[in-house]
Specification:
The chain has 543 residues and is of the alpha+beta class. The protein has eight helices and 24 strands. Helix 2 runs parallel beside helix 4 and helix 3 runs parallel beside helix 5.
């Protein structure tokens, strides 16, 4: 289940001479449009490794599909016969990889085939943008290189925009710290055979490895070697390779197309815009780390060429339509946000968090989202993002409020602008999908969180982690405080797992799927709670 493609766009210098000579970017864009950038080696004098012979499986990191459209999707793989070695064990030459897309997993009805170029500049990753397929269908795909065939992946096209659709089923996953536990939840998610999976971020963690005895929390498995915190592209690549070697994670990628986003740990804990969490790091130096992290993220995710990083910048927010049933806006709450106020973390009485200029999305993304609300309305408006949007007062004392500055509570004016935009556009049936905090939460988004009787503008489902935080427990002291102090919040759970969403025209059901442990392999999964949203009724109730 692998896919390949020469991702045509490279993004070097961006200059235009005084005489108006086209910039190199414009030249490459033109070559890509004409197909020359993806063509044979003579065009760009690309040195190829012809007739490759691998000492081990070049598809050791699995395959994936993503970013579905009504006529196609992206299929991905990355050649790495020695995934933890320098360059994944690959020579510094391009390699042609063949791909096929079929109607069946036996590949008796192959619909499309081609070749793509795995380039050393992108770590021998392959991103193929498949088009020309029928909407609302499942397809099988695979790759071949050097006589070795990849596993088979399962992709799908989304229903055509405006098409009548009765149902969709998808999962929400994220936060998978390697040392904290096994990725068993991914295996269970794969067995669901979802229409798609949304990954909200924290695919890797950038920290130095944790060993038994470093902390009270159980260390379920130790990263090989003794890796320190990662900064360079080669370090990020090796960390992704380690995570992607996990068979349960590979199974989830192969089971369905993914809509991927990033949160903070793909770069640096709690980074905000141009600001590193680490004190004393100049923005221009942090930009180098962002560039390395974004390139590694792109190389390892099933993303389109439009997401190819431009140095420390990447286009990650984007829009999907699932027929007329749902519009899914994947947001970026890291790259354009204001720095966290009052020194970040839990704060009492932080007036700076209320400043009107504070933002989570940045002006351009806010405008893009606002314009989207004015498009022909779907049945369900879905905002797929990273950090908790509803207010969360965690102070155990009555009469005292404490909010976390890395969440939307740290940019209250931005949240107000978003809620106002929903109201001005007359948007109903709004569902927000969130992760980040390694816990399950469910609640309502209120026009005024100080007034429990104020209008509900949408609901929010917060998915727990795959492994981050270790085994966990159904309830904690902080969870009890959260439920007591925040009447708009209806559910809390501190176990690991994923969210399953079953959506129809009139009813949305969210099932909190949890594991009793991640410190050992093979734990079973169960539904801890289920909640329902009825179309036209702005609130949630137990199923």
């Amino acid at each position: 289940m692998f896919r390949r493609d020469a991702f045509g766009r490279f993004d070097p210098d961006d200059f235009v001479t005084a005489r108006g000579t086209p910039s190199r970017r414009h030249l490459l864009t033109g070559l890509a449009a004409s197909g020359l950038l993806l063509a044979a080696p003579p065009v760009l004098a690309q040195r190829l490794w012809t007739n490759p012979v691998f000492a081990a499986d070049p598809f050791s990191l699995g395959v994936a599909s993503g970013d579905p459209a009504e006529d196609g999707f992206v299929i991905w793989t990355k050649l790495a016969p020695e995934p933890l070695a320098e360059h994944g064990g690959m020579p510094m030459r391009g390699v042609e990889v063949s791909w096929e897309v079929a109607e069946d997993e036996g590949f008796t009805r192959v619909l499309q085939r081609g070749t793509g170029l795995a380039r050393p500049e992108l770590g021998h990753a392959v991103h193929v943008e498949v088009t020309g397929l029928q909407p609302d269908r499942f397809y099988a795909y695979r790759f071949t290189c050097g006589g070795v065939r990849s596993p088979i992946g399962r992709a799908r096209t989304f229903p055509a925009a405006g098409a009548a659709v009765e149902a969709m089923r998808f999962g929400v996953v994220g936060c998978q710290r390697y040392e904290d536990g096994f990725f068993t939840a991914f295996r269970h998610a794969a067995e669901e055979r979802f229409d798609f999976i949304y990954h909200y971020g924290d695919y890797i963690y950038e920290y130095r490895t944790i060993r038994p005895g470093d902390r009270p929390l159980t260390v379920a498995r130790v990263m090989p070697g003794d890796p320190d915190e990662i900064y360079a592209l080669s370090d990020y690549r090796r960390r992704y390779a380690l995570y992607k070697l996990d068979p349960d994670l590979q199974a989830a990628h192969a089971s369905a197309p993914w809509l991927v986003s990033f949160d903070d740990h793909e770069i640096d804990n709690n980074w905000a815009g141009a600001i590193s969490e680490e004190a004393g790091v100049p923005p221009e130096i942090f930009a180098l780390r962002r560039a390395a992290g974004f390139q590694a993220w792109y190389e390892h995710m099933p993303l389109r060429r439009s997401a190819l990083p431009n140095g420390p910048a990447i286009q990650a927010y984007r829009r999907f339509r699932y027929g007329e049933l749902a519009r899914i806006d994947v947001l970026d709450t890291r790259q354009f946000r204001s720095d966290q106020p009052c020194g970040d973390g839990w704060q009492v009485g932080c007036a700076e968090a209320l400043a009107p200029e504070r933002t989570m999305l940045g002006p351009a993304q806010e405008a893009w989202l606002r314009d989207g609300f004015r498009l022909p309305p779907p049945r369900w408006t879905v905002l797929a993002q990273q950090v908790m949007m509803m207010r969360l007062d965690s102070a155990p004392e009555i009469g005292t409020a404490r909010y976390h500055m890395d969440k939307w509570d740290g940019a209250a004016a931005a949240r107000r602008r978003l809620f106002d935009a929903l109201g001005e556009a007359g948007v109903v049936n709004t569902v927000v999908l969130t992760g980040d905090i390694h816990q399950n939460w469910a609640g309502e988004l209120k026009a005024d969180f100080d007034d429990a009787g104020s209008a509900t503008v949408g609901v929010e489902f917060v998915a727990t982690s795959i492994s981050s935080g270790g085994d966990g427990a159904p309830m904690t002291r902080a969870g009890r405080v959260g439920l007591q102090k925040n009447p708009h919040i209806r559910y809390f759970n501190n176990q690991r797992g994923y969210l399953r969403h079953s959506v129809g025209r009139d009813r949305w059901q969210a099932d909190y799927r949890v594991l009793d442990r991640v410190s050992e392999k093979g734990a079973g999964v169960a539904t801890a709670a289920s909640f329902v949203v009825e179309a036209g009724r702005r609130g949630l109730r137990p199923a």
